[in-house]
Amino acid sequence: MATMKDIAKLAKVSTSTVSHVINKSRFVSDEIAERVNKAAKELNYAPSALARSLKMKQTKTIGMLVTTSTNPFFGEVVKGVERRCYEKGYNLILCNTEGDSERMKSSIDTLLQKRVDGLMLMCSTLEGEHLDVFERYPELPVVVMDWGPMLFASDKIQDNSHQGGYMATQHLIDNGHTEIGCITGPLHRNQASSRYEGFKQAMSEANLKVHADWIVESNFECDGGFDAFQTLKSRGRLPSALFVCNDMMAMGVIHAAAQDGLRVPQDLSLIGYDDIHLSKYMTPALTTIHQPKHRLGKAAVDTLLSRLESPEVYPQVVELEPTLIERSSVLTL
């Protein structure tokens, strides 16, 4: 395997000059740089990533921890993260926590052993967990995505879930609905509680009653939406419209309603949340609240790299605003 000394001998320059050309660590004339690069190409030289990382104290690698879910929302965010890492010349190591705090701690230890430059966490099922690893490594840059209040200092990327819940409910009200229910996510999680609070605010401002029988807490998955519809049905008369707090649960509601002979939106209007790629292909196409998933991933990477450059800056919160996507699942009364 060729070394820098071999390149220096072939290009008739010093080894330090070869190092400056390859690492772009000092100005070298175009003529000499061309000779060095030509020699490196002839010798099939491949720089050692390990040696460079030891010298630069950077591995150009970021670790990301996510909780597995059937919800493609997470995959769409990860795609945005991967794309931005590629654009910035970074590698990404992805770990799945499966909602297990011990597995998350083990994964963090593994990533630290691999000397990642920073971490991104998208594990909202573990919201509020005490992670002593961040006390042991206070200098480790961390960006948290989609998570509520934290017990450690870090930058945070989130969508304005309260505003999104308000917008969704207001859209139903604007279309003439006054009997509106809500299928929430797990209310101990910040996203779910914020969307529900937005729902209640819109209802209050419109002087509409929130009927307890039309509120069901569920799990953010398809089966949760299906089961929540069965719960609503068992309680008696259904509302004319539902705010379902994510698209996956909305998909479960549509399936359950169809099995029960109900038509969406003629018999029951629905609005979801997330605007996953599949939502436009549901039957009917789902009106929903769009989360900028690729921008969320991009913002997380950019925030982490900014933290690497300026570690002394106070942790920041980057909030991305949701938008309404109108399709075919809401009937105008």
From TrEMBL:
Pfam families on file: LacI, Peripla_BP_3
SUPFAM superfamilies registered for this protein in UniProt: lambda repressor-like DNA-binding domains, Periplasmic binding protein-like I
Keywords: DNA-binding, Repressor, Transcription, Transcription regulation
Residues in coiled coil: none
InterPro entries (UniProt xref): HTH_LacI, LacI/GalR-like_sensor, Lambda_DNA-bd_dom_sf, Peripla_BP_I, PurR_sensor_dom
Domain HTH lacI-type: 2-56
GO molecular function: DNA-binding transcription factor activity; transcription cis-regulatory region binding
Range of residues in the leader sequence: none
Designated name of the protein: Ribose operon repressor
The organism's taxonomic lineage, starting at the top: Bacteria, Pseudomonadati, Pseudomonadota, Gammaproteobacteria, Vibrionales
